[in-house]
Amino acid sequence: MERARPGTTRRRFLKGAALAAVPYTLLPDPPAGARAQAVDYPSAEWQPATTSNYTVSNRPTACPVDRVIIHVTQETYPDTLSIFQNPRKQVSAHYLVRSADGHVAQCVREADVAWHAGNWDYNTRSIGIEHEGWVDRPAYFTDALYEQSARLTAAICTRFGLPRDRAHIIGHYEVPGTDHTDPGPNWDWTRYIRLVNFA
Questions:
Q1: Of residues 112, 78, 92, 111, the one with CA closest to residue 49
Q2: Which of 55, 90, 134, 165 meets the CB 3.0–4.6 Å disulfide criterion with 113?
Q3: Where in the chain does DSSP place strands (E)?
Q4: Has 130 been annotated as catalytic?
């Protein structure tokens, strides 16, 4: 037997209207530590790393940002996002650039410390940008990847007041104590720095 549905009465309507009129100031505050998911770079898509793979901070107030570190993933774009979202991996970067079209994903807020450099001091003072591809497969370093990454790096340099040069835009292989070789010998640094400066 079907149960009769309550009709829309004037009283029910007024109750609903009263609830809709509750001012936002009376609603509970968001939980401590909650953040808006707006990206720092307007062209980026928010693809958050798990909170187990980075350190919440308040940069540059907590510590200055004085460099951008360029990486190559040694993985595909979707696999890299999965790694950043896996709490067992203990790795992340602020940004990931896709090879085919230069699409940019932001995975960690710039104010927070991504775990990308393998050196805590460098992690705290840098923005890490991963690029889809392999160091020994130069076909992954497409025009779109270089151009969109250079625009991103230029925007970061502007935001943090960094010179657009090789002293402040470095490869992962230049981080003290690292055993990584990325972005590798096929990365065209001359072209990249020129693009950053023209962006």
A1: 92
A2: 55
A3: 45-46, 54-55, 67-72, 95-97, 104-106, 113-114, 126-131, 169-171
A4: yes
